Amino acid sequence: MIEPDQQSGGSRPSAAALGPYAFMTALAEMVPVPVIVFDSHGAIIISNRLAGQLLVVSPEQIDRRVLTFDGTDLWDVIAAKRRSGELMITEVPARIRTSANRSVDVTFVVSTLGGHEGSDGGVFAMAYDAPDERDLVGQHPHPLDGTLFPERQQFAPIVRLLAEDLGADAAVFAEVDPDRPLSARTIAAVQDGQSLEGFEWSLPGTPVMSTAGKRAITVRHGLRQAFPDDTWAAAEGFDSFAAVFLTDVAGRRAGILAVYSRDPIEAPEAMAGMLRLFAARLLPALRHLIGDRSLRESEERYSALFEHSHLPMLLIDPASTQIVDANDAACNFYGFGYDDLTAMSALQINTLAPDDTREELARAANRTRNYFQFHHRLADGSVRDVEVYSNPISVHSRELLFDIVHDVTDRHRTESELERYKQQLESLLQRRTDDLMRTNVELQQTTAASDAFYENVGAEFRTPLHTIIGFSDLLARGMVGELNEEQVRQVDMIRDAGRQLAALVDDVLELSRLQTGVEACEPEEFDLAELVRSIAVGVRQTAEASHLAFEVSCPEQAVELFTDRNKVEQILLQLISNALKYTSEGTVRMVVEVDESTAVVRVVDTGVGIEASEIPHIFDEFRQVARRVSGTHEGTGLGLAVCLRLAHILGGTIEVESELGAGSTFTLTFPRRCA
Known about the structure:
Layout: H1 4-7, H2 20-30, E1 35-38, E2 44-47, E3 56-57, E4 64-65, H3 74-83, E5 89-97, E6 103-114, E7 120-129, H4 155-166, E8 170-177, E9 180-191, E10 194-195, E11 216-219, H5 223-226, H6 231-236, E12 240-247, E13 253-261, H7 268-308, E14 313-316, E15 323-326, H8 328-334, H9 338-341, H10 346-349, H11 354-365, E16 371-377, E17 383-395, E18 398-407, H12 409-425, H13 430-459, H14 471-476, H15 485-515, E19 524-527, H16 528-545, E20 549-553, E21 560-563, H17 565-581, E22 587-594, E23 598-605, H18 639-649, E24 653-659, E25 663-671
Parallel strand pairs: 20-22
Antiparallel strand pairs: 1-2, 1-7, 3-4, 5-6, 6-7, 8-9, 8-13, 9-10, 11-12, 12-13, 14-15, 14-18, 16-17, 17-18, 19-21, 22-23, 23-25, 24-25
Helix pairs in contact: 15-18, 16-17, 17-18
């Protein structure tokens, strides 16, 4: 068995220079499903990374094979079909034993490979379905895949390409509600090479309604006679139909990819295989859309509970003790305006000593306690008894405490008075004592019911809620209705401002963490040349989109380092991002030079350069030097400051050379072995 990552020796040649097996190996790695290639004698010569879950040690303990649940080699099943003359392009369903010692039902799309001068060259097998082993259906995106989650409007070209490849007259990609199988939401549809805007595919009457429990369907001809209620087929004269179904993370039917044609289907196996391949590529994007909508609905529920609740609610940062957010009920209870309350610390409203308050916040943050009784000070100076239910939640990757505050001052006063009355009445007649005891029991029952109610309310907030900053993105994509040009422009401004704020928060938190001095180099063995090439693969598409050339110069042999890979990668990505941002034409290059003890990586651009007077301040915090290039380049002004501190943690430095109008060179120098 040839492992693709081991063949290339750390320096991958271009696709044109690869041998036949190496080229097929690279192709297999691009496919988001398990791929296995057998030679003409049944030996496994290629398997991609996802196929590793299907390979188990054979009974002979010789090598790893694909075995069915009863120990039969998959090759024997395929060979039997070859001998019967069935195998050209076909499907082979089998129950496979995985490396985790589980049995899963897998459908293989199998194709015979041509050998030298027409001889038998082996078999190409691609595993598509595995409902009980979700990792086998494309859950691990390939690093080269930059379009894993396309925008909704970008689905149309993919669906159009499917129709063109299959020679179909129409194609449709739709989402279905697992709980309402008659309901379909059209994501993209094309007919006769044109996108159908606003098209709604009606499922009743289509072949889809006759496929309960199936994963695919093909109607080779006679579609209108067999399904006369299919309105689209009747109106357009379609005679054949094929579809595959996509599932959500729970294995339920969540999407349909279908094609219609006016001519009969001549090669149903080939069409089914192509549909399955496209479905595998679209599956992660469909699940992303479903998850995105679920998050939005969750945010709407959170907003309704937080903003409109009659109970005072606060969001508090346990580290800084700052009150980050408050609802109207909290502002009314404490007597402060929203701006004043959210500028305060929890220490200012709690009568406990500051250290005691911080200790209680820490208990809530680490979930050792979620119910507290405090005395809170209001704006008028009065003090109220409160019960606080506090649970941690994550908001914009920031760990906060979600507090529900209940004023129990009157209840406590009532309880105190009742206790005093009880002591006085104990000297009275037994009848009066019995009446008092009965009243006290009723009061305790009422108190217990109240406590249980608020305990249940607090429990509803134990699950962390993620606030979505992308509502403007949903509006811009038209998911809640089409917008006019001015609305789109304003929504884009909101989205850009939100992203800038998120970037600023991330950078400030990162810089603050680095300034504490607790961050240290976490070394590991890795190949710098391989890291640089992987970074180049990720940013080349961005450079080409800006009509820039992106070049990499590094040694052909491996450059072994023992340092913090993540910090090196973070620095290089920031330097390349700056180079691309401030270069309008020309080239951006990464140059790697090493000696026995030191590694040097230069990021060179042909951009506008930096004025000599600004170079000494280039690494200052919140410093953005003037770049004389068309357009604006907004940023936080912290990226290079973070890079410099990361370089110091590595034991290295960053230097800059620049000539106005000719470009800049940023040089990262660090030891090959982190001290």
